[in-house]
Amino acid sequence: MNVYPPPSRVSRPRGPLLLTAAVLLAGGWVVARQLPTSSKEQKGSEAHPRAVTPRGNLTDEEKRTIDLFHSVSPSVVYITSIAQVRDFFTLDVFKLPRGTGSGFIWDDQGHVVTNFHVVMEGLREGDTIEVTLADQTTSTATFVGAAPDKDLAVLRIPPPPARFKPIPVGTSKDLQVGQRVFAIGNPFGLDQTLTTGVVSALGRTMTSVAGREIEGVIQTDAAINPGNSGGPLLDSAGRLIGVNTSIYSTSGSSAGIGFAVPVDIVNDVVPQLIRHGRLIRPTLGIMYYPDENLLRREGIQGVLVLSVTPGSGAEAAGLQGTQRTRNGRLILGDIIKKIDGTAIDNTNALLDALERHQVGDVVEVTFERDGKLRTVKVQVQAPPP
Length: 385
Prior knowledge:
By secondary structure, the chain is of the alpha+beta class. It has helices spanning 39-42, 60-72, 116-119, 263-276, 292-297, 313-317, 347-355; strands spanning 22-25, 28-31, 76-86, 93-105, 111-114, 128-132, 138-140, 142-147, 152-156, 180-185, 193-207, 213-220, 232-235, 240-247, 258-262, 286-288, 303-308, 323-324, 330-331, 335-339, 342-343, 362-369, 372-379. The protein has 7 helices and 23 strands.
């Protein structure tokens, strides 16, 4: 390929001109045609910034939103699950983020509430969970407890308490479709992000990471994206009314359909996680058959009792479990059909019915035995440790 040297001299046209561009092509140099500037530029006039048009006062609604953000955002945190990874060749150990999400300060003891699915990756042996406050200080968190059935978890970060601003807690029982809501979180790692919307629907049901259904879920059109999980959903008074948990989307980004665990569930579960590290759900004192599909194929509707715990309320009430005779014949146990008059079609319905009670309460259990329905009263108890 021949390369030609540039011309030794290029004459400069008279008068102010635009800059020229030279492009080296395979066959030599090509010089772009020079165009004259406008007549106004030729006269040497100068350009100046435009004058700012006064906007007047912010609207009352804008002021309230700004005040809400400034008030609540210090309660919102950024959560990162960190994996300890060893390099195969150098054997050096380095930190690798597994996942991120949001959370919020629950009390002045440093307890942080978030979704279980946000932190479950950080619970592996050797991994850690880091919490970054609104002031950008980062601490390694201690895992306190979790309720996977409700997709909730509690962490704790070290004092000083002066750094903690507990979030104001509201209620979800009186929410109405159409009322304003606000979400603060860290979508796509962009911390301290505010989105707004309304309550789109109430009483939704979604499936938790443990496979249990969460009832009474709040639906909202406030933009919720990956990273918002675990962050607060707020009412117009800046009170917590839900924990942003999931979205319905075909693309993985917000499609205007987000879901939040209602605060009334959160306010019931979190104190138990702080006290016990787990959710204390009342039980009848039975073991039940787990394969519901097989029961349906056999025409059995309800919860089949496999065994009865000795000393339990179920034993005192006379419930019977499944037995096998010496010759191998299987005798099915009692089949629970109702709790307090509410139909029980599966184990989720049974657990939901029991969750409405406290340990020590007495419930009315209707069960089937030998083709006949019977009803007994059973005192519910705490699950085994």
